[in-house]
Amino acid sequence: MAVHGIREDLLLTLLALGKSQHPNEFIAILREEGGIIEAFDLAPGTQVNECSASFFHDMMPLDTHVAGSAHSHPNGVLLPSDADLRFFGSVGRYHIIVGSPYTTDAWRCFFPDGSPAGLEVVP
Ligand SMILES: [Zn+2]
In sequence order, what are the beta bridge partners of 107? Predict the structure, then answer.
């Protein structure tokens, strides 16, 4: 299923989660329903690194509704790191980064190759 949007409530929840976890990161797995990202599962572990990436790869249930991931960048840089790009390839196609100060425009979505992914915010 091609994903073309994210539910506004969910996006706001991700931003609030980033703020509440600051200065730590959070990682979540995103789920879509009918092409809209509607839900997430909070993943154990607080940092995206090679260790957590392989953890996901091993633990990820076979789920066709997994759209991708979301995690926070407490430093506010809205670009994927090298470790992020290795991680992105292991789970889904849409990868959201939310960053400090976690305002409604402090997020971006990326494809696994690091290119920007357009995502409509659906009310
Ligand atoms: Zn990152």
Answer: 98
To the query of whether residue 25 is one of the catalytic residues in this protein, the response is: yes
Question: Into which CATH architecture does domain 11-122 fall?
Answer: 3-Layer(aba) Sandwich (3.40)
- Measured from the Cβ of residue 92, the count of other Cβ atoms closer than 10 Å reads 21
Is the pTM higher than 0.70? The answer reads: yes
27 burial level (CB within 10 Å; 0-12, 13-18, 19+): buried
Distance 34 CA to ligand 1 centre (A): 27
Place of tokens 């009918």: 34
pLDDT of 101-121, one tens digit each? 999 999 999 999 999 999 999
Instruction: Quote the ligand 1 centre to 81 CA distance (angstroms).
Output: 5
* Å from CA of 104 to ligand 1 middle: 18
